[in-house]
Amino acid sequence: MNSVAIVGASLAGLSAARALRAQGFGGRLTIVGAEPHRPYDRPPLSKEFLAGQMTTADLALEGDGEDLDAEWRLGVAATGLRQGEPLRITLADGSAVEADGVVIATGAVARTLGGDLAGVHTLRTVEDAAALRADLDGARRLVVIGAGFIGAEVACVARTLGLDVTIVEAAPAPFARALGPEMGAALAGLHEDHGVRLICGAAVRALSGQGRVDGVLLEDGRRLDADVVLAGIGARPAVEWLDGSGVKVGDGVVCDAGGATSVPGVVAVGDCAAWFDPALGAHLRVEHWTGAARRPATAAATLLSGGAAVPDALAPPYLWSDQYGLRVQFAGHTLPGDEVSVEEGDLASRRFLAVYRREGRTVAVLGVDQPRSFTRWRRRVNEPAVAR
Amino acid sequence: MIPACPLAALPRGEALRIETDPPIAVFHTEDGELYAVDDTCTHQDASLADGWLEGCEVECPLHASRFDLRTGRVDAPPAKLPVRTHQVVVRDETVYVVPSDLPPNLPPGVRTGSAADA
Predict the structure, then answer these.
(1) Of A20, A75, A200, A220, whose CA is between 20 and 30 Å from A260?
(2) What pTM, to 2 d.p., does this model score?
(3) Which residues of A are less than 8 Å from B47 in CB distance?
(4) CB-CB under 8 Å, B109 with A54
C-alpha cells in the first residue's frame, strides 16, 4: 500500500494517521478535513472551554513539533468515494484525492430542531461553543432540550454563570439511554441539587419568538420562557457523502470488529463507524472520545495487513463528564434489564460507584467522584462471569 | 525533603497523593521501586495517584495517557508534555520526597495555588 487518504481531521482521523505511521506506513498520507482547523479536542467545548477556562490553543490535539509527514486538505469536505484501484475521493472544491487505502473518519453532525431563530444552538464545533458562550453571557434563562451529557454539561456551566436553567427530556427519565433509569435518576438529583429544573416525559411542540427565540412550547401546553435554547438531542453519522460508493451504511458505516467496511481497502473509525462488538453480538456506533482515540490503531492494522491482522479485543466504551465539580465516569454498555447495585458510597451523597451485571457478568460501571475505584472496576467489565 | 508516609503504609501496587502545591503522587511498583511525580496529569485535571499502575508506567484515570514514572516521559497520548519527576528517599522506614526545582507541566486551567479546586 503506497498511499492512504484519511477523510476526517478530528480525533479519529489524527489517531489513524498516528497509528499508520507508528505501524510503519511510509507512503503518501493525505488528511482531508471539512473544518478549516487543525485537529482539536471536542470534550472541553461543553466544559472548560465553554466556562472560559481553556482557550482555542489549549484544544490543539497535535503536540508541538509533531510531524506526521501528511498532506493536509483542510476546510474542504469530501463529497464522494469511488471504488477502483486507486480509490478516488472527490472533494467539495471539485478536486479529488486518489489513494490505495481510505480511512473514513467523518464523525457526526449534531441533530437540530430546525427553524432559523437566533438564540437556538447545537454544540459540536469550536464555533458552536464560542457562539453559545457569547449568547449565554447576558442571558437570564437557558432551556436545554435533551437530558444527555452535552446538555447536562452546558446546564452545569450555565448555572455557574448564574443563569436560570431548565432541562426538557422526552423520555420518562434523564440519561436513561446511557445509564439506565435508576442511575439516570441519581444523576438527575445532582442537577436538582444545584437548582436546575428538570422536566421529563415532555415533548417539545415548537419554539416561539420573532427573529430570536423567547420560549419553548411543550406538547402538554406548557410554555417555558427562554433567552437561549440548546438542543442536545444527539448526533447523526456524517455518511451522506458515501451514497453510491458501495460502502455499506446502517446507523453509521457498518464495520467488522477490526474496522473493515464492505469495500476492500476502506476502514472506518470514530463517531461515523458502527463496529461489530463481539461482547454484544451486534454492531454498535459509539460516539465516545476513547473509541475515537484507540480504535484507529486496530483499523490501521486492518488496512495495512489487507484484513489479515487479528483485531485486538475491543475495550469497553468509556465516557466521562464533569458536572458541578464531580467527575462522572461510565464504562461498558447497559441494556434494559441489567441488575444495578451500588458497591461503594451511596446515592444520597451523590458520590458512588455502581456496577451493572447481566447473567452474573459485569457489563458496565458508573462512578461519580470515585476515580480510584473506577480505575479498578473498569478493568472487570466484560470479564467472564466467575462463580461466587 | 517532605515526609510522605511510613513505608509500611504504601504496599506494592499502591499510590499515595501528597497535598503539596501542586500535589505529588508517590508510587510503589510491584517490583518494589518507589517513584514520585506531579499528581496532576499534564493533559487535563486528573489525579495520577488514582490511575492504573503497571510496571513503571501509570495510566491516567481520565483519558488513559501513560507516563513513564522513571523519566516522566509520555508513553501514550493524549498528554503531550512529560510529567515532572521528584526524587524519593527512604530513611528509617519512612518515605520522603525531594521536590524538583524545575517548573511543573500543569494542564490548562490548573495553576499552583489553585489546588483547592481539584
Answers:
(1) A75
(2) 0.90
(3) 371
(4) yes
Identify whether the C-beta of residue A258 lies closer than 8 Å to the C-beta of residue A311.
Answer: yes
Count of CA atoms in the C-beta half-sphere (13 A) of A312: 12
Any residues with CB less than 8 A from the CB of B92 and at least 6 apart, and which?
Answer: none
A114 touches chain B (CB under 8 A): no
Q: Report the amino acid identity of residue A383.
A: E
**Which residues, at least 6 apart from B50, have a Cβ–Cβ distance to it below 8 Å?**
A371, A372, A375, B15, B61
Cα(B110)–Cα(B118) distance, integer angstroms: 9
What is the per-residue pLDDT across A119-139, written as a single tens digit (0 to 9) for each?
A: 999 999 999 999 999 999 999
Are residues A13 and A96 in contact, defined by beta-carbon separation less than 8 angstroms? no
DSSP state of A351: E
The complex scores an ipTM of: 0.82
Q: List the beta strands (DSSP E) in B42-105.
A: 52-54, 57-59, 66-68, 74-76, 85-91, 94-98
* A64-121 pLDDT, tens digit each: 889 999 999 999 999 999 999 999 999 999 999 999 999 999 999 999 998 899 999 9
